[in-house]
Amino acid sequence: MFSAAVTDVLLENHIHFAYVNGVSSGSMTAMNYVSRQNGRMLLTTKTYLHDKRYMGLRHLIKKRMIFNFDFSFGEMSSTLIPFDYDAFYSSPQRYEAVATRCKTGQPEYFEKGVCPDIINAIKASSSIPVLSRMIKVDHRQYLDGGISMPIAYKRPMDLGYGKVVLILTRDLTYRKKPMSPMMERAYRHYFAPLPHLLDSLMEIPDRYNRMVEEIVRLESEGKIFVIRPEHPVTVSRMEQNIAKLEALYAEGRRVAEERLPALRNYLEE
Q1: Which terminal Cβ of the chain has fewer Cβ within 10 Å, N or C?
Q2: pTM higher than 0.90, yes or no?
Q3: Distance (Å, rounded) from C-alpha 133 to C-alpha 136?
Q4: Which residues pair with 94 in a beta bridge?
Protein backbone atom coordinates (compact mmCIF):
# COMPACT_ATOMS: atom_id res chain seq x y z
CA MET A 1 0.00 0.00 0.00
CA PHE A 2 2.85 2.38 0.75
CA SER A 3 4.55 1.64 -2.57
CA ALA A 4 1.24 1.89 -4.42
CA ALA A 5 0.64 5.34 -2.96
CA VAL A 6 4.11 6.55 -3.92
CA THR A 7 3.82 5.29 -7.50
CA ASP A 8 0.37 6.87 -7.78
CA VAL A 9 1.86 10.24 -6.80
CA LEU A 10 4.64 9.73 -9.36
CA LEU A 11 2.06 9.06 -12.07
CA GLU A 12 0.01 12.11 -11.11
CA ASN A 13 3.14 14.24 -11.43
CA HIS A 14 4.17 12.72 -14.76
CA ILE A 15 7.36 11.19 -13.41
CA HIS A 16 8.11 8.16 -15.56
CA PHE A 17 11.43 6.41 -15.08
CA ALA A 18 13.24 4.73 -17.98
CA TYR A 19 13.74 1.55 -15.96
CA VAL A 20 11.61 -0.03 -13.22
CA ASN A 21 12.02 -3.22 -11.21
CA GLY A 22 9.92 -4.84 -8.53
CA VAL A 23 10.51 -7.53 -5.94
CA SER A 24 7.76 -9.69 -4.42
CA SER A 25 4.49 -7.71 -4.20
CA GLY A 26 6.47 -4.73 -5.47
CA SER A 27 6.56 -6.43 -8.86
CA MET A 28 2.77 -6.12 -9.06
CA THR A 29 2.81 -2.52 -7.86
CA ALA A 30 5.36 -1.76 -10.56
CA MET A 31 3.07 -3.34 -13.19
CA ASN A 32 0.37 -0.79 -12.44
CA TYR A 33 2.96 2.00 -12.54
CA VAL A 34 4.21 0.93 -15.98
CA SER A 35 0.65 0.54 -17.33
CA ARG A 36 -0.08 3.96 -15.76
CA GLN A 37 -3.18 2.80 -13.90
CA ASN A 38 -3.30 5.25 -11.04
CA GLY A 39 -5.15 3.88 -7.99
CA ARG A 40 -5.61 0.34 -9.30
CA MET A 41 -3.65 -1.39 -6.53
CA LEU A 42 -5.68 0.38 -3.84
CA LEU A 43 -8.95 -0.36 -5.62
CA THR A 44 -8.26 -4.08 -6.06
CA THR A 45 -7.18 -4.45 -2.44
CA LYS A 46 -10.19 -2.61 -1.01
CA THR A 47 -12.61 -4.44 -3.28
CA TYR A 48 -11.34 -8.01 -2.94
CA LEU A 49 -9.40 -8.22 0.32
CA HIS A 50 -12.19 -10.20 2.01
CA ASP A 51 -13.26 -12.05 -1.14
CA LYS A 52 -12.58 -15.78 -0.80
CA ARG A 53 -11.48 -15.85 -4.42
CA TYR A 54 -8.60 -13.46 -3.66
CA MET A 55 -6.75 -15.09 -0.76
CA GLY A 56 -7.23 -17.51 2.09
CA LEU A 57 -6.47 -20.91 3.58
CA ARG A 58 -8.77 -22.63 1.08
CA HIS A 59 -6.39 -21.74 -1.73
CA LEU A 60 -3.40 -22.78 0.36
CA ILE A 61 -4.94 -26.22 0.92
CA LYS A 62 -6.30 -26.73 -2.60
CA LYS A 63 -3.67 -25.00 -4.76
CA ARG A 64 -0.76 -24.52 -2.34
CA MET A 65 -0.90 -20.73 -2.62
CA ILE A 66 -2.29 -18.33 -0.03
CA PHE A 67 -2.94 -15.72 -2.75
CA ASN A 68 -5.06 -16.95 -5.63
CA PHE A 69 -3.07 -15.77 -8.65
CA ASP A 70 -5.48 -17.55 -10.98
CA PHE A 71 -8.15 -15.07 -9.87
CA SER A 72 -5.89 -12.00 -9.57
CA PHE A 73 -4.35 -12.42 -13.01
CA GLY A 74 -7.46 -14.01 -14.48
CA GLU A 75 -11.00 -12.78 -13.94
CA MET A 76 -10.03 -9.78 -11.83
CA SER A 77 -7.46 -8.46 -14.31
CA SER A 78 -9.41 -9.31 -17.43
CA THR A 79 -12.95 -8.33 -16.44
CA LEU A 80 -13.57 -7.01 -12.93
CA ILE A 81 -10.83 -4.37 -12.61
CA PRO A 82 -9.10 -4.69 -15.99
CA PHE A 83 -5.34 -4.44 -16.18
CA ASP A 84 -4.20 -2.58 -19.29
CA TYR A 85 -1.92 -5.23 -20.78
CA ASP A 86 -1.62 -3.29 -24.04
CA ALA A 87 -0.27 -0.23 -22.21
CA PHE A 88 2.02 -2.40 -20.11
CA TYR A 89 3.60 -4.26 -23.01
CA SER A 90 3.82 -1.22 -25.30
CA SER A 91 5.32 1.09 -22.67
CA PRO A 92 8.86 2.24 -23.51
CA GLN A 93 9.77 1.78 -19.85
CA ARG A 94 12.01 -1.21 -19.17
CA TYR A 95 10.47 -3.42 -16.50
CA GLU A 96 12.00 -6.33 -14.60
CA ALA A 97 10.53 -8.68 -12.01
CA VAL A 98 12.97 -10.32 -9.60
CA ALA A 99 12.46 -13.95 -8.58
CA THR A 100 14.60 -16.53 -6.76
CA ARG A 101 15.53 -19.68 -8.65
CA CYS A 102 14.85 -22.63 -6.37
CA LYS A 103 17.73 -24.80 -7.63
CA THR A 104 20.44 -22.18 -7.05
CA GLY A 105 18.92 -19.91 -4.39
CA GLN A 106 20.03 -16.94 -6.51
CA PRO A 107 18.03 -13.98 -7.90
CA GLU A 108 17.14 -13.81 -11.57
CA TYR A 109 15.73 -10.85 -13.49
CA PHE A 110 12.88 -11.19 -15.97
CA GLU A 111 12.40 -8.35 -18.42
CA LYS A 112 9.19 -7.34 -20.13
CA GLY A 113 9.52 -7.93 -23.86
CA VAL A 114 12.39 -10.37 -23.36
CA CYS A 115 10.96 -13.00 -21.01
CA PRO A 116 8.28 -14.92 -22.97
CA ASP A 117 6.25 -15.49 -19.78
CA ILE A 118 6.61 -12.27 -17.78
CA ILE A 119 3.28 -12.81 -15.97
CA ASN A 120 4.45 -16.13 -14.52
CA ALA A 121 7.71 -14.42 -13.54
CA ILE A 122 5.70 -11.81 -11.63
CA LYS A 123 3.70 -14.55 -9.93
CA ALA A 124 6.97 -16.25 -8.98
CA SER A 125 8.39 -13.00 -7.63
CA SER A 126 5.38 -12.73 -5.31
CA SER A 127 5.22 -16.38 -4.19
CA ILE A 128 5.94 -16.51 -0.45
CA PRO A 129 7.94 -19.60 0.58
CA VAL A 130 5.85 -22.33 2.27
CA LEU A 131 2.66 -20.29 1.74
CA SER A 132 2.96 -20.57 -2.04
CA ARG A 133 4.00 -23.33 -4.39
CA MET A 134 6.92 -22.88 -6.72
CA ILE A 135 6.14 -21.24 -10.06
CA LYS A 136 7.60 -22.45 -13.35
CA VAL A 137 9.16 -19.94 -15.71
CA ASP A 138 10.82 -21.38 -18.80
CA HIS A 139 10.76 -24.88 -17.26
CA ARG A 140 12.56 -23.74 -14.09
CA GLN A 141 11.13 -23.40 -10.59
CA TYR A 142 11.08 -20.03 -8.79
CA LEU A 143 9.85 -18.42 -5.58
CA ASP A 144 9.71 -14.97 -3.98
CA GLY A 145 12.43 -12.60 -5.18
CA GLY A 146 12.73 -11.29 -1.64
CA ILE A 147 14.41 -14.53 -0.55
CA SER A 148 17.64 -13.71 -2.38
CA MET A 149 17.25 -10.06 -3.44
CA PRO A 150 14.92 -8.17 -1.08
CA ILE A 151 15.90 -4.75 -2.48
CA ALA A 152 17.20 -4.70 -6.06
CA TYR A 153 18.79 -1.24 -5.77
CA LYS A 154 22.08 -2.25 -7.41
CA ARG A 155 20.44 -3.63 -10.54
CA PRO A 156 19.87 -0.25 -12.27
CA MET A 157 23.43 0.75 -11.40
CA ASP A 158 24.71 -2.44 -13.03
CA LEU A 159 22.62 -1.61 -16.11
CA GLY A 160 24.24 1.82 -16.35
CA TYR A 161 21.52 4.11 -15.02
CA GLY A 162 22.90 7.17 -13.25
CA LYS A 163 19.96 7.99 -10.99
CA VAL A 164 18.26 5.51 -8.70
CA VAL A 165 15.00 6.18 -6.87
CA LEU A 166 14.17 3.54 -4.28
CA ILE A 167 10.80 2.96 -2.61
CA LEU A 168 11.15 1.12 0.69
CA THR A 169 8.26 -0.19 2.78
CA ARG A 170 9.96 0.08 6.18
CA ASP A 171 11.12 3.09 8.17
CA LEU A 172 14.75 4.10 8.65
CA THR A 173 15.14 2.27 11.98
CA TYR A 174 13.76 -1.09 10.82
CA ARG A 175 16.06 -4.12 10.80
CA LYS A 176 15.06 -7.74 10.49
CA LYS A 177 15.29 -9.81 13.66
CA PRO A 178 16.99 -13.22 13.66
CA MET A 179 14.81 -15.99 12.29
CA SER A 180 12.70 -17.72 14.92
CA PRO A 181 13.56 -21.36 15.74
CA MET A 182 10.08 -22.42 14.59
CA MET A 183 10.47 -20.73 11.19
CA GLU A 184 13.97 -22.16 10.79
CA ARG A 185 12.67 -25.67 11.48
CA ALA A 186 9.85 -25.20 9.00
CA TYR A 187 12.24 -24.05 6.28
CA ARG A 188 14.70 -26.86 6.97
CA HIS A 189 11.94 -29.45 6.79
CA TYR A 190 10.18 -28.01 3.74
CA PHE A 191 13.22 -27.14 1.62
CA ALA A 192 15.67 -29.88 2.61
CA PRO A 193 15.84 -31.16 -1.02
CA LEU A 194 16.96 -27.67 -2.17
CA PRO A 195 20.09 -26.88 -0.13
CA HIS A 196 21.03 -23.71 -2.03
CA LEU A 197 17.55 -22.27 -1.61
CA LEU A 198 17.65 -23.23 2.07
CA ASP A 199 20.98 -21.45 2.50
CA SER A 200 19.51 -18.33 0.91
CA LEU A 201 16.47 -18.49 3.20
CA MET A 202 18.67 -18.82 6.28
CA GLU A 203 20.58 -15.68 5.31
CA ILE A 204 17.52 -13.45 4.82
CA PRO A 205 17.84 -11.34 8.01
CA ASP A 206 21.58 -10.69 7.68
CA ARG A 207 21.37 -10.03 3.94
CA TYR A 208 18.50 -7.57 4.35
CA ASN A 209 20.20 -5.71 7.19
CA ARG A 210 23.47 -5.43 5.24
CA MET A 211 21.58 -4.00 2.29
CA VAL A 212 19.80 -1.44 4.43
CA GLU A 213 23.09 -0.26 5.91
CA GLU A 214 24.55 0.19 2.42
CA ILE A 215 21.42 2.00 1.25
CA VAL A 216 21.71 4.43 4.17
CA ARG A 217 25.32 5.11 3.18
CA LEU A 218 24.52 5.59 -0.52
CA GLU A 219 21.65 7.90 0.40
CA SER A 220 23.90 10.02 2.62
CA GLU A 221 26.35 10.31 -0.28
CA GLY A 222 23.58 11.49 -2.62
CA LYS A 223 23.97 8.48 -4.91
CA ILE A 224 20.40 7.23 -4.52
CA PHE A 225 17.10 8.81 -3.51
CA VAL A 226 14.96 6.91 -1.01
CA ILE A 227 11.26 7.28 -0.23
CA ARG A 228 10.30 5.33 2.89
CA PRO A 229 7.72 5.43 5.73
CA GLU A 230 8.58 7.91 8.45
CA HIS A 231 7.25 5.71 11.26
CA PRO A 232 7.30 1.97 12.01
CA VAL A 233 4.74 0.12 9.88
CA THR A 234 2.25 -1.97 11.86
CA VAL A 235 0.46 -3.46 8.84
CA SER A 236 1.10 -7.21 8.62
CA ARG A 237 1.87 -9.19 5.47
CA MET A 238 -1.61 -10.77 5.52
CA GLU A 239 -3.38 -7.68 6.86
CA GLN A 240 -7.19 -7.93 6.86
CA ASN A 241 -7.99 -4.51 8.32
CA ILE A 242 -8.91 -2.26 5.41
CA ALA A 243 -8.78 0.88 7.57
CA LYS A 244 -5.13 0.15 8.44
CA LEU A 245 -4.29 -0.43 4.78
CA GLU A 246 -6.00 2.82 3.76
CA ALA A 247 -4.09 4.67 6.49
CA LEU A 248 -0.80 3.28 5.19
CA TYR A 249 -1.75 4.31 1.65
CA ALA A 250 -2.55 7.82 2.90
CA GLU A 251 0.80 7.94 4.68
CA GLY A 252 2.52 6.93 1.44
CA ARG A 253 0.81 9.74 -0.44
CA ARG A 254 1.74 12.29 2.21
CA VAL A 255 5.40 11.27 2.29
CA ALA A 256 5.67 11.15 -1.51
CA GLU A 257 4.06 14.57 -1.96
CA GLU A 258 6.32 16.11 0.68
CA ARG A 259 9.38 14.57 -0.95
CA LEU A 260 8.52 15.69 -4.49
CA PRO A 261 10.59 18.90 -4.50
CA ALA A 262 13.67 17.05 -3.23
CA LEU A 263 13.08 14.28 -5.76
CA ARG A 264 12.89 16.76 -8.64
CA ASN A 265 16.12 18.40 -7.46
CA TYR A 266 17.85 15.01 -7.33
CA LEU A 267 16.70 14.10 -10.82
CA GLU A 268 17.71 17.46 -12.28
CA GLU A 269 21.20 17.59 -10.74
Answers
A1: C
A2: yes
A3: 10
A4: 19
3-state secondary structure 111-178: ECCCCCCHHHHHHHHCCCECCECCEEECCEEEEEHHHCCCCCCHHHHHCCCCCCEEECCCCCCCCCCC
> What pLDDT score was predicted for residue 61?
64
Distances (CA, A) of 213 to 95, 154, 172, 223: 26, 14, 10, 14
For residue 184, the model assigns a pLDDT of 96
Query: Are 125 and 68 spatial neighbours (Cβ–Cβ below 8 Å)?
Result: no
Q: Which helix (H) or strand (E) holds 100?
A: strand 94-101
166 has a pLDDT exceeding 80: yes
Q: Which helix (H) or strand (E) holds 8?
A: helix 2-12
Range 27-31 contact pairs with CB under 8 angstroms and sequence separation of 24 or more: 27/97, 27/98, 27/122, 27/125, 27/126, 27/145, 28/122, 28/126, 29/3, 29/4, 30/95, 30/97, 31/83, 31/88, 31/95, 31/122
Q: How far is CA 132 from the centre of its chain?
A: 15
Strand partners of residue 107: 100
- Four-point Cα dihedral 63, 67, 70, 76, nearest 10: 150
Residue 60: what pLDDT?
A: 67
Backbone angles phi, psi at 86, to 5 degrees: -60, -45
Say how far apart CA 189 and CA 229 lie, in whole Å. 35
Amino acid identity at 251: E
Of 266, 246, 260, the residue nearest 49 (C-alpha): 246
